[in-house]
Each structure stands twice: as structure tokens, then as C-alpha cells.
Amino acid sequence: MNALVIVESPAKAKTINKILGKEFTVKASVGHIKDLPSKDLGVDVEKNFEPNYIVIPGKEKIIRELKKASKEADKIFLAPDPDREGEAIAWHIAYEISDKKNLTSKKEIYRIIFNEITERAVLESIRNPQKIDMKKVEAQQARRILDRLVGYGLSPLLWRKVRRGLSAGRVQSVAVRIIVDREREIDEFRSEEYWSITAEFEGSNLPTFSARLFKISEASAVSSQEPKTESKFLITNETAAGAIVSDLQNKEFVLNKIERKQRKRMPYPPFITSTLQQEAVRKLRFPAKKTMMLAQQLYEGIELGQEGSAGLITYMRTDSHRLAHEAQAWSRELIAKTYGKDYIPEKPPVYKSKATAQEAHEAIRPTYSDKSPQAIKQFLSKDQFALYTLIWNRFISSQMSPAQLEQTTFTINTKPISTTDNLPIPPLEKGGEGGFEKSDGGAISRVPFYEFRTTGTVVRFAGFMALYTEGKDEIEDENGLTLPALKEGEALKLLGLLPKQHFTQPPPRYTEATLVKALEDKGIGRPSTYATILSTIQDRKYVLKTEGKFSPTELGAVVNDYLVERFPELIDVGFTAKMEDELDHIEDGKMKWEKVVKDFYKPFHTDLAEANKTVGKVKPKDIPTEIVCEKCGLPMVIRWGRHGRFLACTGFPECKNTKPYQAEGADQNQNSPETNSQQTDEKCEKCGSPMVIKSGRFGKFLACSKYPECKNTKPFSTGIKCPKDGGDIAERRSKRGKLFWSCSNYPKCKFASWYKPVPRKCPKCGTDFLFEKRNKGGDITFFCHKKECGFKEVEKSAEEEVVTAGAS
User: Fold this and answer.
1) DSSP assignment of 547-614, as one string?
2) How would residue 446 be classed by pLDDT, with cut points 50, 70 and 90?
3) How many CA atoms lie within 13 A of 478 on its CB side?
4) Can you state the angle between helices 134-161 and 573-588, rounded to 10 degrees?
């Protein structure tokens, strides 16, 4: 038998070819071969939204090769990735290699699906081939058409109303709105002061321990333990805190109660796409885009020396926690061998997926029991090893026994005072003085009853925690105190009191991890789209990531406000989630794709027509200042222009005086990147101080943090070495403001490129980096910098439609 297998990626083709042997020919389509045209809408609205797919420019040669190989094959197996995008690729390939008149072929064309590139999975799929799932194809087609309609509708509108070159998309615009809304929550937040009091105690046995004031009078909890916005706190100022500390100095304390609880901490489920991206941000500081690029490499295959290429993880775009029984079996054997039988639960754990999860997929896990991270470390890059270790540890730990914890809580009270002068103290009200009565001089005269509490946790059995614990988005208080062995009722010695001022904090800005979680929780996007959404909103300068946290740029806020005003339904989180559900219903066969598109387009087209009727530009209001124009004496205002904020005279047009605006705070980050310095681990070779990243007229550069004492600077390296002389390739900007990349040893070395180098090995010739080229449709082409190699791979935009020139 001579069979042909067609996949998308050359790396994937290499791994599968090794598995199948000489009877099979494996070819790669290098991503999509057909798509909507980039220079016009490509959707016939009048003919029930019929799409006009064309061969992607540059793919003609690949299609000829696939046709030739299909004619020589007895059977044809289409094996793109197991998702909607892969199904659409398979459908287009089948169309191109079939008879165009009746869409059939003299040979059988099969669709094969596998979640891991292993011998077992690939051969199983060959033995059980399927047909192309047209419901998946229609779901992907509906998404593509919806995004094209929105992109080609909104982008020209933004050109006219805001400024040229802008674009908008169906899902990315909602992501920007989430970030803008959070920023406004932060701006509107009003911080409130509160105080906590911590006591240090000593009992009959060491060590000493600390406890926090929890109650004053028996019925009133101190709310400062868990501050909430818009709440009045028990200890609201320094005077009240000082009065309490003074009153506590001469008290006697007793350990009133010891409470011990046995708790189980269950292991975390194996990774799905969203949790992998979140944890890679927390633990490895990898952006979502980088995480998915590395995961794709691990899935498609890594060269393991003489063994050849092997796919190390299951498919990485999934929202299912399901695991193959074989994987659970080998993981249990590995756990028993490494940790002992106590670390294996009686039954393999089962983790629930959300209702919309595609249960045909598996969770993200390693594919081979004998390929631990350490065993194959020599074959992996530093980043590949880090991500593979994370996936390995998470999967193995998910199959381990729960951790057994013992939580101990000490309740410490002041000894009650039985005098007729002190009546029972009423409960303390939030915002009030509770059991305190003020004399004319303001002193507190009544004596309240105090209660302190502290909690410590002891790990009695580590279970899965012996291997893995999850990272945290925000710093949390850990109940990890070591408490002494004491008895109930024993007296305690007060060693010290520490009053501490606190202020309520606004909600935090989103990180990549928390934004992905928010998108998932709100039903926005799907596993294949999260990384693209995050990348797109940054590339379009709608949001800025500073110290790992997102904030909207002024441009992003302006565009968001305009879209919310004119297209409230389109930019609504609930509406976008509903559209995602309807795409799922198309895949399930519960809805027709034409109806979903039609129901969306009718109100959108009406809103678009109304928006196009309005005249005038959209821009932020001028901000008055106390700065006086030196030419005419009139006050100046902060005005918004194409390149950000600037100062302009209010006497315009009579006085046309303008000057640069040096912004402060958030505006500084958004409009003056050269003032936003980020410290690096690199040391200045002249004075030994840390170097910082700065941005200037010609792009990013490294400068000594001791400037102006030390004026040492050097180009900002991409971390990629020049292929000509081994120097660092640095990012620069031309006199006209266009980015380019060149060798840091210029002018000795003349290597330069308009295309961005990325640290991605060429699968064909093995060189250390590829060039990245983006087209107007948001697609990314990776190609080898060696012309003689000729490797090229297209990564399709999984989500938004980008329009940057003359769309109508």
C-alpha cells in the first residue's frame, strides 16, 4: 500500500513519518492553503453570506505538490490538528486534490484525528479513519465570516472617526473593554484607612508566636482582617489604635481555646489551555503567545538524538480535563516507583470539565512515561525544558494522593474583669467606637474584652505537594506558622504589640494570567484564541503591559468608548459569550451557520450605517492647565494628537504655539515610553550598576541606571546572535520611525533586516532563528534567514480580522 498523510506542519510531518515508515508518504500543507481574500470583503452578503475562498498567495507550489502526491497514493489521510481550524484545513485540502466538477476523488480521502503524536495514537487513527466533520467546518467558517464582517465594517469607520491605520475586531474589542473598565474602577476607587494590631506571645514552650486582634467584646469581629471597599472599619485611625495598645499593655492573657482540624488539599487537575497559559505566566513569566509557541513545538516533535523526532505532549488547544486510561496507568506506576504506594489514591481521580468542553480532546499531558524532563533535558532548549517540566509535574501531581494537613487555631483572650463598675460591653458596630466611651477630654474610659487569634498549618502528609504547588496571581497570607505545643487555659506572656496602618486597595490590573482567566470565566474566546487576543490588543497599541500588568492606552480608551457608544451590543461581554455558545451549537448540529451570521449581521449593519452618518472626529477633551503660552499669554491645554498628548495654546488658530507634554503617572507610561525605564539583570561594564531598558528616537536601548553620573549605553539585544559575526542582533528605529533589526557591531557588520528575528529553530536547516513577517490580515509568516534553505511557515490569525488599508 502507498498511502499519503497530509498534516499542516513540517515538524509534525517529520515526527509522523518516523512512526509510519516507508509505506506512507507524509506531506505538510504549512498551515492553511485557502482563505478569504485580503484585499476585499470576500463574503457575498446578498447570497446568504457565501464566502469566496481563494488560494493563499505563495501556496500554489504546495498545492501542486499535494496534488501530485495524491495521484500516486492509494489512500489519502488528512491529519491536521484536532479542532475546528484543523477541520477547515482538511476540507480545503480535500477540495483542492479532488475532482472539482463533482468534488470527489477516484481514491478514498479520510480524516484521521489524534490528540498525541505517538505510535499508539497515530496507528489507532489510521485503523479507524473518519470523514471530515462538516459541522466543525461550518463553525469555523461562521467565526471567520463574522470576524471578517466586523473587521471590514469597523476598521474604515475608525479610520474616519479616530485616526488612520486603526482596526477593530469582534472579540479583541471586548477584551480591551474589560481592561478599560478595570482601569476606571481603579481610578474611581477611594482608599480607606484601617489599622491592625498584632501581639507577640510566649507560652510554656517555645517558639514564641504572633496573633492578630480579632474581637473587642465577645460579639464583634474586627473587619480589618478582611477589608472590603465601602466599609467602615473597626479601628479606623491611629488614635483608636493607640488607645487599644495602651489599654492592652497591662492585661493578662490566657490561651482560651485550641482548635485542631484535619483537612485534605486535593491535587490540581491536569492543564487545559487556559490554565497552562496562566501558570506559565505566574511561574515562568512566559507570555501566552510564547507558551503556545513552545507547546506547539513539544506537541509536533523534538529531535531526541538517535531516537529521532518524538511528540512529547498531547494537543495543547483543549478545554477538557479528560485523560486516557493508559496515561493514568503509567503515571500511577511511576508515582509508586518514585514516591511509594502511599502517594497513589485508591482510584485514579476524575476531574470535571465545564459544560462546553470538547470531551473528544484530552488534557495537556506528557505522552511518554520514560521521557521525564531530566532524561531528555540535553535535547531541549532552556524554555522548552521549563515548560515541559511544568506540564510533566502538573500531570503527575494530578494523579497523586491528596495532601493531609492539620490546621491549629489558638484563641487568646484577656482575663475577664469582674467589677460592678464595668457593665457588659455592647457589640462593636462597624465604624463606631463599640465598647468605648469618650470622656470630655477624648480619652477612652471603658475597658473592653479582647480576643486574639492565630492559625498554623502543619503538613502531616505531603501527597501531591511533594511534587507540585500552584502559583498565585497575588500575594496571599499563608497559614504556615509553626505554633508551640501548649495547653488550653495556660497563661501567656505578652512580649510586644505592633499596631500597623493599612489602606484598602483598588482591584488589581489584569496580568496575562488573570486576563485569560477572566476571558474564560466570561465565556469570551476559546482555547485557540486566548494567546491571539492578548497579542493583538498589544500590537494595535490599545493596551500597554507594564511590569506584567495591562493598562489601556489613551488610544485604546478612546476607541473603546466610541465602540461602546455606537455598538453597545457588539462590545457587550454577555453578547460575545452568547456568540461563542452559538458557534458551539453550530458544531453540535443544533444551529445553522447561515442563521447565526444573518442574526448577527442585521443589527450590526444597522448600527454601522447610523455610525457612518455622523460627522466629526472622536478624540478626548482638552485638559486645562496653569501653563501660560509664552507667545500670547493665554493658558495652554493638554490636547490629544496622533502621537499622543501635547500642549497647545487656547488661542488657536490665531496662536499656533505647541510644545511637548511631559506626562506623569499612567499617561507617562502610555505616551512617553522613553521615560519608562525597566531594570534588567545586566550590569554596566563601566560602573557595575544595573542597566535599564529605555526607548528613544531610534528604538529601545540599554542605559546605565546611574545616569547622568554614568552615561554608558548600548543597543537593546533581542537575545539572538548575528549569523555573520556572532554579535547581538538589536532592535532599532530608522529616521522615519520604522523598526528594523541589525547587528550591534555596526558599522563593522552590515547585517540588517526589516523583519523581526524570533528565537525559533528552523525545522529544515536547524539555524537558530527565523524571521517573522505579518500581513494585513493578521497572519504571521515565519521564514528562514538563509535564502538557500527556503523554509516558510504561515501561522493563521485564529481570531481577529485586521484591516489597515482602504477597506470598505
Assistant:
1) TTEEEE-HHHHHHHHHHHHH-TTTT-HHHHHHHHHHHHHHHHTSS-HHHHHHHHHHHHHHHHHHHHH-
2) very low
3) 9
4) 150
What per-residue string of b and e applies to 768-783 under the rule 16 or more CB within 10 Å gives b? ebbbeeeeebbbbbbb
Q: 315, 388, 510, 542: which one is catalytic?
A: 315
Residue-level length of the chain: 808
pLDDT value of position 696: 59
Q: How far is CA 437 from CA 125, 414, 421, 443, 691, in A?
A: 80, 19, 13, 8, 58
Question: Could you tell me where the DSSP H helices lie in 318-419?
Answer: 325-339, 382-398
Output the pLDDT for position 288: 92
Instruction: Locate 654 and state its grid cell.
Output: 490665531
Q: How far is CA 436 from CA 348, 443, 741, in A?
A: 58, 9, 69
Sign, CA dihedral 347-349-352-353, equals negative
Instruction: Tell me the pLDDT tens digit for each residue of 212-259.
Output: 998 886 434 443 444 443 444 578 889 989 989 998 988 899 999 999
* 752 pLDDT above the threshold of 50: yes
C-beta atoms surrounding 198 within 10 Å: 15
Assign 732 a pLDDT band (cuts: 50, 70, 90): confident
In angstroms, the CA 733 to CA 389 distance is 38
Within 10 Å of residue 445's Cβ, how many Cβ atoms?
A: 9
- Give the cell for residue 167: 482596526
d(CA 755, CA 79): 31
- Pairwise CA distance, residues 367 & 304, whole Å: 14
Q: How far apart are CA 12 and CA 31, in angstroms?
A: 11
CA distance 143 to 149: 10
Using a cut of 0.85, tell me whether the model's pTM lies above it: no
Omega before 653 within 30 of 0, i.e. cis? yes
Residue 353 corresponds to which cell in the numbers above?
470539565
Digit-coded pLDDT (tens) for 353-378: 876 666 568 999 999 999 999 999 99
Element (H, E) at 461: strand 450-461
Q: At 801, is the secondary structure helix, strand, or coil?
A: coil
For 298, half-sphere exposure in the C-beta direction (CA atoms, 13 angstrom radius) is 34
pLDDT at 710: 83
**C-alpha grid cell, residue 808:** 470598505
Sign of CA dihedral 270, 550, 546, 769: positive
How many whole angstroms from its chain centre is CA 98?
Answer: 41
Q: Which three cell numbers stand for residue 408?
A: 491549629
pLDDT level of residue 441 (50, 70, 90 thresholds): very low
Closest among 309, 310, 280, 279 to 293, alpha carbons compared: 280
Q: Are 637 and 647 in contact (CB under 8 A)?
A: yes
Q: How far apart are CA 519 and CA 516, in angstroms?
A: 5
* Residue 669 host element (H or E): helix 665-671
Most confident of 497-511, 696-710, 743-757: 497-511
User: For the CA atoms of the chain, what is the radius of gyration?
Assistant: 32
746 is catalytic: no
Given a contact cutoff of 8 angstroms between Cβ atoms, the answer to whether 142 and 586 are in contact is yes
Angle (nearest 5°) at CA 630 between 625 and 633: 70
Give the distance from CA 602 to its chain's centroid. 33
d(CA 180, CA 557): 6
Give the closest residue to 211 by CA, choosing from 505, 472, 493. Answer: 493
d(CA 479, CA 458): 9
Res. 609: pLDDT tops 90: yes
Q: Give the closest residue to 393 by CA, choosing from 338, 459, 473, 324.
A: 338
In this prediction, residues 182-198 reach a mean pLDDT of 91
| CA 531 to centroid of chain Cα atoms | 7
Q: 554-566 vs 593-613: helix axis angle to the nearest 10?
A: 110
Instruction: Please check whether residue 178 is in contact with residue 530, taking contact to mean a CB–CB distance below 8 angstroms.
Output: no
